[in-house]
From TrEMBL, chains A, B:
<feature type="domain" description="PLD phosphodiesterase">
    <location>
        <begin position="83"/>
        <end position="110"/>
    </location>
</feature>
<dbReference type="Pfam" id="PF13091">
    <property type="entry name" value="PLDc_2"/>
</dbReference>
<keyword id="KW-0378">Hydrolase</keyword>
<dbReference type="InterPro" id="IPR025202">
    <property type="entry name" value="PLD-like_dom"/>
</dbReference>
<dbReference type="InterPro" id="IPR001736">
    <property type="entry name" value="PLipase_D/transphosphatidylase"/>
</dbReference>
<keyword id="KW-0443">Lipid metabolism</keyword>
<dbReference type="GO" id="GO:0051321">
    <property type="term" value="P:meiotic cell cycle"/>
</dbReference>
<dbReference type="GO" id="GO:0016042">
    <property type="term" value="P:lipid catabolic process"/>
</dbReference>
<dbReference type="GO" id="GO:0016891">
    <property type="term" value="F:RNA endonuclease activity producing 5'-phosphomonoesters, hydrolytic mechanism"/>
</dbReference>
<protein>
    <recommendedName>
        <fullName>Mitochondrial cardiolipin hydrolase</fullName>
    </recommendedName>
</protein>
<comment type="similarity">
    <text>Belongs to the phospholipase D family. MitoPLD/Zucchini subfamily.</text>
</comment>
<keyword id="KW-0469">Meiosis</keyword>
<dbReference type="GO" id="GO:0005739">
    <property type="term" value="C:mitochondrion"/>
</dbReference>
<dbReference type="InterPro" id="IPR051406">
    <property type="entry name" value="PLD_domain"/>
</dbReference>
<dbReference type="GO" id="GO:0034587">
    <property type="term" value="P:piRNA processing"/>
</dbReference>
<keyword id="KW-0442">Lipid degradation</keyword>
Length: 150, 150
Protein backbone atom coordinates (compact mmCIF):
# COMPACT_ATOMS: atom_id res chain seq x y z
CA UNK A 1 0.00 0.00 0.00
CA UNK A 2 1.51 3.34 -1.04
CA UNK A 3 -0.29 5.46 1.57
CA UNK A 4 1.78 7.34 4.16
CA UNK A 5 0.08 5.80 7.21
CA UNK A 6 1.92 3.18 9.28
CA UNK A 7 0.88 -0.27 8.00
CA UNK A 8 -1.45 -1.13 10.89
CA UNK A 9 -3.27 2.22 10.74
CA UNK A 10 -3.63 1.88 6.97
CA UNK A 11 -5.11 -1.63 7.31
CA UNK A 12 -7.48 -0.42 10.03
CA UNK A 13 -8.61 2.56 7.99
CA UNK A 14 -9.29 0.40 4.93
CA UNK A 15 -11.29 -2.06 7.02
CA UNK A 16 -13.25 0.80 8.64
CA UNK A 17 -14.04 2.27 5.24
CA UNK A 18 -15.45 -1.05 4.01
CA UNK A 19 -17.58 -1.49 7.12
CA UNK A 20 -18.89 2.07 7.22
CA UNK A 21 -20.16 1.65 3.67
CA UNK A 22 -22.90 -0.65 5.03
CA UNK A 23 -26.41 0.63 4.34
CA UNK A 24 -28.70 -2.28 5.20
CA UNK A 25 -27.02 -5.18 6.98
CA UNK A 26 -23.80 -6.33 8.59
CA UNK A 27 -23.07 -9.91 9.63
CA UNK A 28 -19.98 -10.33 11.80
CA UNK A 29 -18.52 -13.73 12.70
CA UNK A 30 -15.38 -13.27 14.78
CA UNK A 31 -13.30 -15.37 17.14
CA UNK A 32 -11.95 -12.28 18.93
CA UNK A 33 -13.22 -8.69 18.80
CA UNK A 34 -11.46 -6.14 20.98
CA UNK A 35 -10.53 -3.23 18.69
CA UNK A 36 -12.17 -0.08 20.15
CA UNK A 37 -12.22 1.65 16.75
CA UNK A 38 -13.96 -1.27 15.05
CA UNK A 39 -16.33 -1.61 18.00
CA UNK A 40 -17.24 2.06 17.66
CA UNK A 41 -17.84 1.69 13.92
CA UNK A 42 -20.18 -1.26 14.46
CA UNK A 43 -22.17 0.64 17.12
CA UNK A 44 -22.35 3.63 14.78
CA UNK A 45 -23.83 1.46 12.02
CA UNK A 46 -26.35 0.00 14.45
CA UNK A 47 -27.30 3.57 15.46
CA UNK A 48 -27.83 4.42 11.79
CA UNK A 49 -30.36 1.62 11.45
CA UNK A 50 -28.15 -0.99 9.78
CA UNK A 51 -29.20 -4.49 10.87
CA UNK A 52 -26.13 -5.78 12.73
CA UNK A 53 -25.75 -9.38 13.89
CA UNK A 54 -22.66 -10.71 15.64
CA UNK A 55 -21.48 -14.27 16.23
CA UNK A 56 -18.46 -14.83 18.45
CA UNK A 57 -16.56 -17.33 20.59
CA UNK A 58 -17.80 -17.90 24.13
CA UNK A 59 -14.33 -18.36 25.60
CA UNK A 60 -13.00 -15.10 24.12
CA UNK A 61 -15.99 -12.79 24.44
CA UNK A 62 -15.49 -12.29 28.17
CA UNK A 63 -11.78 -11.48 28.06
CA UNK A 64 -10.57 -8.04 29.12
CA UNK A 65 -10.91 -5.51 26.32
CA UNK A 66 -13.56 -7.49 24.46
CA UNK A 67 -16.01 -5.26 22.62
CA UNK A 68 -18.85 -7.77 22.88
CA UNK A 69 -20.31 -6.34 26.11
CA UNK A 70 -20.39 -2.82 24.64
CA UNK A 71 -22.11 -4.09 21.50
CA UNK A 72 -24.79 -5.80 23.56
CA UNK A 73 -25.18 -2.72 25.73
CA UNK A 74 -25.86 -0.76 22.55
CA UNK A 75 -28.67 -3.19 21.70
CA UNK A 76 -26.84 -5.23 19.07
CA UNK A 77 -27.74 -8.92 18.84
CA UNK A 78 -24.83 -11.22 19.70
CA UNK A 79 -24.77 -15.02 19.71
CA UNK A 80 -21.95 -17.36 20.69
CA UNK A 81 -21.02 -21.04 20.68
CA UNK A 82 -21.63 -23.00 23.80
CA UNK A 83 -18.95 -25.63 24.17
CA UNK A 84 -16.43 -27.80 22.38
CA UNK A 85 -14.00 -26.19 19.95
CA UNK A 86 -13.52 -22.56 19.08
CA UNK A 87 -15.81 -20.47 16.86
CA UNK A 88 -12.70 -19.54 14.91
CA UNK A 89 -14.11 -17.73 11.84
CA UNK A 90 -12.97 -14.18 11.12
CA UNK A 91 -15.35 -12.77 8.55
CA UNK A 92 -17.99 -10.12 7.95
CA UNK A 93 -20.53 -9.58 5.20
CA UNK A 94 -21.63 -6.05 4.28
CA UNK A 95 -25.08 -5.58 2.73
CA UNK A 96 -25.18 -9.28 1.79
CA UNK A 97 -22.71 -8.46 -0.96
CA UNK A 98 -19.20 -7.79 0.23
CA UNK A 99 -17.27 -10.52 2.07
CA UNK A 100 -14.40 -9.46 4.32
CA UNK A 101 -12.44 -12.52 5.47
CA UNK A 102 -8.95 -13.73 6.31
CA UNK A 103 -6.65 -14.44 9.23
CA UNK A 104 -7.36 -11.17 11.06
CA UNK A 105 -9.18 -11.07 14.37
CA UNK A 106 -10.45 -7.59 15.13
CA UNK A 107 -7.95 -6.85 17.88
CA UNK A 108 -5.44 -4.02 18.17
CA UNK A 109 -2.63 -6.54 18.66
CA UNK A 110 -3.48 -8.27 15.39
CA UNK A 111 -3.96 -5.06 13.42
CA UNK A 112 -0.80 -3.37 14.69
CA UNK A 113 1.67 -6.18 15.34
CA UNK A 114 0.80 -9.40 13.54
CA UNK A 115 1.38 -10.56 10.01
CA UNK A 116 -2.18 -10.99 8.73
CA UNK A 117 -4.31 -11.09 5.60
CA UNK A 118 -7.73 -9.67 4.82
CA UNK A 119 -9.51 -10.60 1.62
CA UNK A 120 -12.36 -8.44 0.31
CA UNK A 121 -14.48 -10.34 -2.19
CA UNK A 122 -17.66 -9.39 -4.02
CA UNK A 123 -18.15 -12.45 -6.26
CA UNK A 124 -21.39 -14.11 -5.16
CA UNK A 125 -19.74 -17.49 -5.69
CA UNK A 126 -17.48 -16.78 -2.68
CA UNK A 127 -19.85 -14.61 -0.64
CA UNK A 128 -22.78 -17.03 -0.60
CA UNK A 129 -21.14 -19.92 1.27
CA UNK A 130 -20.11 -17.47 4.02
CA UNK A 131 -23.61 -16.01 4.24
CA UNK A 132 -25.03 -19.54 4.39
CA UNK A 133 -22.56 -20.46 7.11
CA UNK A 134 -23.54 -17.34 9.05
CA UNK A 135 -27.25 -18.21 8.92
CA UNK A 136 -26.50 -21.81 9.93
CA UNK A 137 -24.44 -20.66 12.92
CA UNK A 138 -26.96 -17.97 13.82
CA UNK A 139 -29.69 -20.61 14.17
CA UNK A 140 -27.42 -23.15 15.83
CA UNK A 141 -26.35 -20.60 18.47
CA UNK A 142 -29.90 -19.41 19.14
CA UNK A 143 -30.08 -19.06 22.94
CA UNK A 144 -33.35 -21.01 22.85
CA UNK A 145 -31.17 -24.04 22.06
CA UNK A 146 -28.71 -23.64 24.97
CA UNK A 147 -28.33 -26.72 27.11
CA UNK A 148 -27.47 -25.90 30.70
CA UNK A 149 -26.71 -29.43 31.84
CA UNK A 150 -24.83 -30.94 28.94
CA UNK B 1 -20.92 -31.40 1.99
CA UNK B 2 -22.99 -34.49 1.20
CA UNK B 3 -20.19 -37.05 1.76
CA UNK B 4 -20.64 -39.67 4.48
CA UNK B 5 -17.44 -38.79 6.38
CA UNK B 6 -17.65 -36.91 9.69
CA UNK B 7 -17.24 -33.18 8.95
CA UNK B 8 -13.64 -32.89 10.19
CA UNK B 9 -12.47 -35.95 8.25
CA UNK B 10 -14.21 -34.66 5.13
CA UNK B 11 -12.52 -31.24 5.45
CA UNK B 12 -9.15 -32.92 6.03
CA UNK B 13 -9.57 -35.19 3.03
CA UNK B 14 -10.50 -32.28 0.77
CA UNK B 15 -7.51 -30.28 1.95
CA UNK B 16 -5.21 -33.30 1.44
CA UNK B 17 -6.53 -33.80 -2.07
CA UNK B 18 -5.78 -30.17 -2.99
CA UNK B 19 -2.26 -30.36 -1.57
CA UNK B 20 -1.39 -33.72 -3.10
CA UNK B 21 -2.25 -32.33 -6.52
CA UNK B 22 0.96 -30.25 -6.36
CA UNK B 23 3.41 -31.05 -9.16
CA UNK B 24 5.99 -28.27 -8.99
CA UNK B 25 5.79 -26.04 -5.92
CA UNK B 26 4.09 -25.59 -2.59
CA UNK B 27 4.32 -22.45 -0.46
CA UNK B 28 2.97 -22.81 3.06
CA UNK B 29 2.50 -19.88 5.44
CA UNK B 30 1.00 -21.09 8.71
CA UNK B 31 0.72 -19.80 12.25
CA UNK B 32 0.35 -23.35 13.65
CA UNK B 33 1.07 -26.67 11.94
CA UNK B 34 0.60 -29.82 14.01
CA UNK B 35 -1.65 -32.11 11.97
CA UNK B 36 0.27 -35.39 11.44
CA UNK B 37 -1.68 -36.22 8.27
CA UNK B 38 -0.95 -32.83 6.70
CA UNK B 39 2.69 -33.07 7.83
CA UNK B 40 2.97 -36.46 6.15
CA UNK B 41 1.45 -35.11 2.93
CA UNK B 42 3.92 -32.22 2.81
CA UNK B 43 6.88 -34.57 3.36
CA UNK B 44 5.53 -36.85 0.65
CA UNK B 45 5.41 -33.94 -1.82
CA UNK B 46 8.95 -32.95 -0.90
CA UNK B 47 10.03 -36.58 -1.50
CA UNK B 48 8.38 -36.45 -4.94
CA UNK B 49 10.53 -33.45 -5.90
CA UNK B 50 7.96 -30.70 -5.36
CA UNK B 51 9.71 -27.50 -4.18
CA UNK B 52 8.27 -26.97 -0.71
CA UNK B 53 8.86 -23.80 1.33
CA UNK B 54 7.33 -23.22 4.76
CA UNK B 55 6.94 -20.00 6.77
CA UNK B 56 5.69 -20.26 10.33
CA UNK B 57 5.47 -18.53 13.70
CA UNK B 58 8.50 -18.77 16.00
CA UNK B 59 6.45 -18.96 19.18
CA UNK B 60 4.28 -21.82 17.93
CA UNK B 61 6.75 -23.92 15.96
CA UNK B 62 8.36 -25.36 19.10
CA UNK B 63 5.14 -26.40 20.84
CA UNK B 64 4.47 -30.09 21.48
CA UNK B 65 3.01 -31.80 18.43
CA UNK B 66 4.35 -29.22 15.98
CA UNK B 67 5.21 -30.73 12.62
CA UNK B 68 7.91 -28.16 11.89
CA UNK B 69 10.79 -30.22 13.30
CA UNK B 70 9.78 -33.25 11.21
CA UNK B 71 9.58 -31.10 8.08
CA UNK B 72 13.07 -29.76 8.69
CA UNK B 73 14.37 -33.26 9.42
CA UNK B 74 13.03 -34.28 6.02
CA UNK B 75 15.09 -31.51 4.41
CA UNK B 76 12.28 -29.03 3.84
CA UNK B 77 13.19 -25.33 4.08
CA UNK B 78 11.41 -23.57 6.94
CA UNK B 79 11.64 -19.91 7.93
CA UNK B 80 10.00 -18.11 10.85
CA UNK B 81 9.51 -14.64 12.26
CA UNK B 82 11.87 -13.47 14.92
CA UNK B 83 10.04 -11.21 17.32
CA UNK B 84 7.13 -8.85 17.83
CA UNK B 85 3.67 -10.00 16.80
CA UNK B 86 2.51 -13.34 15.48
CA UNK B 87 3.04 -14.62 11.94
CA UNK B 88 -0.69 -15.28 11.84
CA UNK B 89 -1.33 -16.14 8.17
CA UNK B 90 -2.96 -19.47 7.33
CA UNK B 91 -2.49 -20.01 3.62
CA UNK B 92 -0.81 -22.20 1.04
CA UNK B 93 -0.25 -21.85 -2.69
CA UNK B 94 -0.11 -24.94 -4.90
CA UNK B 95 1.88 -24.75 -8.15
CA UNK B 96 1.73 -20.94 -8.03
CA UNK B 97 -1.89 -21.21 -9.08
CA UNK B 98 -4.23 -22.44 -6.36
CA UNK B 99 -4.61 -20.42 -3.17
CA UNK B 100 -5.85 -22.22 -0.05
CA UNK B 101 -6.61 -19.70 2.71
CA UNK B 102 -8.96 -19.01 5.58
CA UNK B 103 -9.22 -19.23 9.34
CA UNK B 104 -7.88 -22.79 9.61
CA UNK B 105 -4.55 -23.58 11.22
CA UNK B 106 -3.34 -27.04 10.25
CA UNK B 107 -3.98 -28.63 13.64
CA UNK B 108 -6.12 -31.63 14.53
CA UNK B 109 -8.00 -29.53 17.11
CA UNK B 110 -8.96 -26.97 14.46
CA UNK B 111 -9.88 -29.55 11.82
CA UNK B 112 -11.94 -31.73 14.15
CA UNK B 113 -13.43 -29.37 16.72
CA UNK B 114 -13.45 -25.74 15.60
CA UNK B 115 -15.79 -23.79 13.40
CA UNK B 116 -13.49 -22.77 10.53
CA UNK B 117 -13.43 -21.73 6.90
CA UNK B 118 -11.11 -22.64 4.05
CA UNK B 119 -11.31 -20.81 0.75
CA UNK B 120 -9.83 -22.35 -2.40
CA UNK B 121 -9.29 -19.73 -5.08
CA UNK B 122 -7.71 -19.95 -8.52
CA UNK B 123 -8.29 -16.39 -9.81
CA UNK B 124 -4.87 -14.81 -10.29
CA UNK B 125 -6.29 -11.54 -8.96
CA UNK B 126 -6.57 -13.15 -5.50
CA UNK B 127 -3.65 -15.58 -5.71
CA UNK B 128 -0.99 -13.03 -6.68
CA UNK B 129 -1.12 -10.84 -3.56
CA UNK B 130 -0.66 -13.97 -1.42
CA UNK B 131 2.28 -15.17 -3.53
CA UNK B 132 3.81 -11.69 -3.32
CA UNK B 133 3.33 -11.67 0.46
CA UNK B 134 4.96 -15.10 0.68
CA UNK B 135 8.03 -13.95 -1.25
CA UNK B 136 8.24 -10.78 0.88
CA UNK B 137 8.08 -12.78 4.10
CA UNK B 138 10.48 -15.43 2.77
CA UNK B 139 13.14 -12.75 2.21
CA UNK B 140 12.35 -10.89 5.41
CA UNK B 141 12.72 -14.08 7.47
CA UNK B 142 15.93 -15.13 5.76
CA UNK B 143 18.16 -16.41 8.60
CA UNK B 144 20.98 -14.25 7.22
CA UNK B 145 18.94 -11.31 8.55
CA UNK B 146 18.47 -12.61 12.10
CA UNK B 147 19.55 -10.24 14.82
CA UNK B 148 20.68 -12.01 17.96
CA UNK B 149 20.89 -8.95 20.16
CA UNK B 150 17.88 -6.87 19.23
Amino acid sequence: CPCPLPHGDCALSRLLRRLLAARRSLEICLFAFSSPQLGRAVRLLHGRGVRVRVVTDAQYMGLRGSQIGLLRQAGIQVRHDQEGGYMHHKFAVVDGRVLITGSLNWTTQAIQNNRENVLVVEDAEYVKPFLDEFERIWEEYNPANYRFFP
